[in-house]
Structures are given as structure tokens and as C-alpha cells.
Design goal:
By secondary structure, the protein is of the alpha+beta class. It has a single domain, classed as 2-Layer Sandwich (Secreted effector protein pipB2 fold). The chain contains three helices and seven strands. A hairpin with a 2-residue loop joins strand 5 and strand 6. Helix 1 packs parallel to helix 3. It starts with 5 loop residues before the first strand and ends with a helix. The model has no long low-confidence stretch (mean pLDDT about 95).
């Protein structure tokens, strides 16, 4: 499998909804996610932190009622990324939409850049809930350190 080429784009959130487009190796997936019951942007930052430190992690992007799940699975020097669609947000019945792998810079850094760019706009309620970004720079350092292990 070729190494990943990941790009994330988004539209400004509106009343608790966020549309992101993920382009992975030429395939585009659009997700219209709710900020209820979780904040997937904040959860993504936590997941990136865990994955950069060798711990498998996931993020639920709730579509009300369906959902997408992002899985970041470290495996030696590689990180596997998997995007799964689940009817009624039931992980057990999920269908893989796209999967790729690469080193931390190839897989984690594009998602970190999305979170960082999102942070720069300081979106507020009612459009998007407050998001805890206090570890964002530490997460980038963790990704760099992880990258150095490759």
C-alpha cells in the first residue's frame, strides 16, 4: 500500500454542525458532524496525542444518528488510519470507507494542522462548543518525536 497523502478541509461550523472533507489518496469523504454529544475536534486532538505516543485511539464524528469513526493505530514505525461509517453510530456494524498508513508526519500531522487551523478562528457558541487546546503544542512535539523514531 502506498504511503498516505491526507488533506483536510472544512467549512466554518454553524449552530453545532461542522462539515469536513477528508481527501485521502485521491478519495474524498465529506462528514457533516454534530458537536453533540461530544466535541470531535477536541477528541481528535486527544486521539492524535495518544497515537503519537504509541496508543491506539479513535474519534466519533456523530451525524445524528449515524456516525463516522476515525481509528489511529500505531504499529511499529507506522500509523494506520481507518475511517469507518456506522449506521446508528454502532461501531460493531461499521463499514470501512478508507484506510491508509504512513509514518507520524504523513498520518498524524495533517490532522494536527486541521485542528491548529480550526483553533485559529476561535469559533464560539452557538456555532461550536468551547474546545480545550491547551495540549496542542505538546501534541505537535509528540508527533515530531514519534516521527524521529521512524
Amino acid at each position: 500500500m502506498p504511503l498516505s497523502d491526507i488533506h483536510i478541509f472544512y467549512q466554518p461550523p454553524s449552530h453545532g454542525w461542522l462539515t469536513i472533507s477528508i481527501l485521502i489518496d485521491g478519495q474524498t469523504v465529506e462528514i457533516d458532524a454534530s458537536a453533540v454529544p461530544n466535541n470531535p475536534v477536541e477528541d481528535l486532538l486527544v486521539a492524535l496525542d495518544l497515537a503519537a505516543n504509541g496508543v491506539p485511539s479513535s474519534v466519533w464524528w456523530h451525524l445524528e444518528p449515524d456516525g463516522y469513526f476515525m481509528y489511529f493505530t500505531p504499529n511499529g514505525e507506522e500509523i494506520q488510519f481507518k475511517l469507518v461509517f456506522a449506521i446508528e453510530s454502532d461501531r460493531a456494524c461499521g463499514r470501512e470507507v478508507v484506510e491508509t498508513r504512513g509514518n507520524a508526519a504523513q498520518v498524524l500531522l495533517p490532522f494536527w494542522r486541521f485542528v491548529r487551523e480550526f483553533q485559529s478562528h476561535d469559533f464560539q457558541e452557538p456555532h461550536w462548543p468551547l474546545t480545550d487546546y491547551k495540549r496542542i503544542l505538546a501534541v505537535k512535539d509528540d508527533i515530531r518525536l514519534s516521527r524521529g523514531k521512524s
